[in-house]
Design goal:
This protein is α+β, with helices and mostly antiparallel strands. 51% of the residues lie in helices and 10% in strands. The chain folds into three domains: 148 residues, no CATH class; 142 residues, no CATH class; 107 residues, Nucleotidyltransferase, domain 5. The chain is elongated. The structure holds zinc ion (ZN). The site of zinc ion has 6 residues, from loops. The site of zinc ion (ZN) has 6 residues, from loops. GO terms for molecular function: nucleic acid binding; RNA-DNA hybrid ribonuclease activity.
Length: 424
């Protein structure tokens, strides 16, 4: 890095002293029709030229035009705004705060119609090149680059937990791309030279980065603040999308993580609609839509898993005159209720009785399952079946019922109630 800063010094001298012999020789050979900064590096170049050309990146980074009569400056491409960072015009929306600031900065630049434009070094207050400031400029660039790559290369557990979230694959892929900075935001397309502007297509005010679109845009803010995750939006104080995701994965409950993923995906969908000039979804109800989506998805996949486990563990009939009662439960989180299904069959697999009911859920799945079991057993007794085998899948409840020890926790009364049925 230090070598490069020294080479930049040579390059800077070349740029400032076009009358030197070295400049004239190099110009004749390598850039007869353009400036040192725009010259090509042909494959047969000398070592000196290659080395100097290598350092141009630093010079470009730190050089700006001092405006004289303005005739040499390309106002759209060159660095020429002295007090801003970067030193050039950023394409932003009319009336945005960035644009107003730029206008102020431009208005403060004095014009000198009798003087040529000249190149000055922006790294020092006096506009003179210094090796030290070139070195600092490089170091700053390197650390900002490595910061963004380390963002992208999060540790293994981050990606593992991201892929482990129970949402449809398309949403996981979306989130993965968002965290890899590979979504086609305007800032991304702008940096690849595909677009000439990077203004957010939704608010037309800020540059459209992933963090802006999904978290910081006025539309996204309204969405988050009207969702179940509103506290999260207030509490997370970071300025990088991956940090937001990491914080969510680390601190939130499973269902909130699923809603977070889904809602971010919906915000992106809305952004794509805005891009296609389609009407945008109501920001105030998007949170509710995401919660319903997650719940429906969970219900469907849970059913699929349940039916899979039933298929794996093939139902086996009871022997002789015994009857078997199968008890199944399902949970509806938004309705805060439990669905209970009961089937009683004989040894030939014929259905003798069945029953279903939806009732309010208890404080956790164990309490709800115990309540469901009591209802199921009561149904069996009421229907006149006394000699029943009972089959169900809640392993924790099963262990508590089968244990010979007394249950001392809050669920003890229900367990005792269930055990009592055996006495009948
Ligand atoms: Zn925006």
């Amino acid at each position: 890095m230090f070598n490069l800063a020294l080479l930049a010094k040579q390059g800077w001298r070349l740029l400032q002293n076009p009358d030197t012999l070295l400049h004239r020789v190099l110009k004749a050979k390598y850039f007869p029709d353009c400036s040192f900064l725009d010259a090509q590096i042909p494959s047969h170049s000398s070592f000196t030229w290659r080395s100097l050309a290598q350092a141009r990146h630093i010079i470009r980074l730190g050089t700006r035009w001092r405006i004289g009569n303005g005739s040499q400056v390309n106002i759209w491409k060159d660095n020429w705004i002295s007090s801003s960072s970067p030193l050039k015009i950023i394409f932003s929306a009319p009336n945005s705060s960035r644009k107003c600031k730029e206008a102020e900065q431009i208005k403060s630049i004095p014009l000198h119609p009798s003087r040529h434009d000249s190149m000055v070094w922006s790294g020092t207050p006096n506009g003179q090149f210094s090796t030290r400031s070139a070195y600092q400029l490089q170091a700053a660039e390197k650390s900002s680059l490595s910061a963004s790559t380390s963002d992208q290369s999060r540790n293994h557990s981050f990606w593992k937990s991201l892929w482990g979230v129970a949402v449809p694959n398309k949403i996981k892929v979306f989130m993965w791309r968002a965290c890899k900075s590979s979504l086609p935001t305007k800032a991304n397309l702008f940096s690849r030279g595909v677009l000439s502007s990077c203004t957010c297509p939704v608010c037309h005010d800020e540059n459209e980065t992933i963090f802006h679109t999904l978290w910081d845009c006025q539309y996204a803010r309204t969405v988050w603040q009207n969702s179940l995750l509103h506290k999260l939006h207030y509490s997370i104080q970071v300025s990088n999308w991956n940090d937001v995701v990491e914080e969510v994965l680390r601190t939130q409950r499973q269902q909130d993580i699923e809603t977070f993923f889904t809602l971010a995906w919906m915000i992106w969908g809305n952004r794509n609609n805005a891009w296609l000039q389609k009407p945008s979804a109501d920001a105030e109800i998007l949170g509710e839509k995401a919660a319903t989506y997650v719940e429906e998805y969970n219900e469907v996949t849970k059913k699929v898993e349940d039916s899979r486990s039933v298929l794996c563990r093939k139902w086996s009939p009871p022997t002789g005159s015994m009857l078997k009662m199968n008890v199944a439960t399902t949970y509806f989180n938004t309705r805060k209720s439990v669905g209970l299904g009961v089937v009683i069959r004989n040894s030939r697999g014929e259905q003798m009785a069945s029953y279903c009911e939806e009732f309010p859920s208890a404080k956790d799945s164990l309490h709800s399952a115990a309540n469901a079991m009591i209802k199921a057993l009561q149904f069996g007794v009421d229907a006149g079946f006394y000699c029943l085998m009972v089959e169900f899948s809640h392993s924790q409840l099963k262990a508590l019922i089968q244990s010979t020890e007394e249950c001392l926790s809050e669920i003890g009364d229900q367990i005792a109630h269930i055990r009592n049925f055996r006495e009948h």
